[in-house]
Every structure is written in C-alpha cells, then in structure tokens.
Amino acid sequence: MKTKLLFLLVFAFALFSLKAQTSLNFDGVNDYVLGTNNASLNLTQGTIEAWIKTSDAGTSYRGIIVKQYNYGIFLNSNELIAFEWISGSLKNTNINLADNIWHHVAFTFQSEVVNGSKLYIDGNPVLTFTYKISHFDRTIA
C-alpha cells in the first residue's frame, strides 16, 4: 500500500514568513519542509503541532515536526511518539493513527520539568512525561 502521509504544519512559533495567498502542496509521497537553524528555534520550552492524515506510515520513524537532536514528534509504526535524544528514549502514546482520518497532534514541552511535557491528539492529552532537550545545531524539518 502506498504510504500517504500529508502534513499541514502549524507552528506555535514563527518558522516561516509566508505572504498572503501562499500555500504548501504535498503529494503524499516524499514531501517535507526544511527550515533554518535559527537560534530562535533552540527552545527549552514550547509547543509544536501539525495536522496529519495517513492510512499507513510504515514501520520506521516518520518525522512530523523535528528539530533534529533537540525535540520532535514522529509516527513510529503509526503511533505518535516524542523522541528524547539525550537518553535515546521513546515517549510512546501507543495510539495508532493509521485510520485515514485527519488528526491534530501537538507536543508541549518544558525541558527537565517533572511531568512538564505532553503529547496531544485531537486536543486531548494522551501522554504526560518528563523530557530533556539537548542543544545541537541542526535544522528543523
């Protein structure tokens, strides 16, 4: 089955300065947005969010919004996760999103605050955990 994973990126922080009447168009095959490694994205707290829809994202990691080696949300075997680079641990919701329905996913984080980070699906908190941000210079995708 052909993987169709479409992203409509909505950031709680300014990633791009888009002019009116511009848009992004994804064909569901191999599309992504690559941003800069601006210092304003080196966050220790914040929120990242997106709208996603997939019938099968596959069995490997599929980045939704990622500041590599810092913070990010993924689908892994179709389940929403956050990955903590410092410890190499997965923060897994164990919720399969491969239902071909649009879902709003969000990750709020506060580095090193006990239970200060949460994953949300469709506005509902589904996982609360402690998360530690590393600070390596990488681009956001």
Quick structural overview:
The model is unreliable at 1-18 (pLDDT under 50). This protein has 141 residues and is an all-beta fold.
Which regions are unreliable across 5 or more consecutive residues at pLDDT < 50? 1-18
Q: Number of DSSP helices?
A: 0
Give the N-terminus to C-terminus distance in angstroms. Answer: 25 Å
Fraction of helical residues: under 10%
What would the principal axes of the Cα set say about the shape?
A: globular
Order of helices and strands: EEEEEEEEE
| Radius of gyration, CA atoms, in whole angstroms | 14 Å
What is the percentage of strand-forming residues? 35-45%
Largest sheet: 5 strands, antiparallel
Q: Numbering strands along the chain, what is their spatial order in the largest sheet?
A: 1-2-7-8-9
Task: Please tell me about this protein's structure.
Helix content is 0%, strand content 45%. By secondary structure, the protein is mostly beta strands. The strands form two sheets. Strands 1-2-7-8-9 form a five-stranded antiparallel sheet, with no helix packed on it. Strands 3-4-5-6 form a four-stranded antiparallel sheet, with no helix packed on it.
Labels describing this entry:
single chain; 141 residues; mainly beta; 9 strands; globular
Topology readout:
Blueprint: E1 5-11, E2 45-54, E3 61-67, E4 71-76, E5 79-84, E6 89-96, E7 103-110, E8 117-121, E9 124-129
Antiparallel strand pairs: 1-2, 2-7, 3-4, 4-5, 5-6, 7-8, 8-9
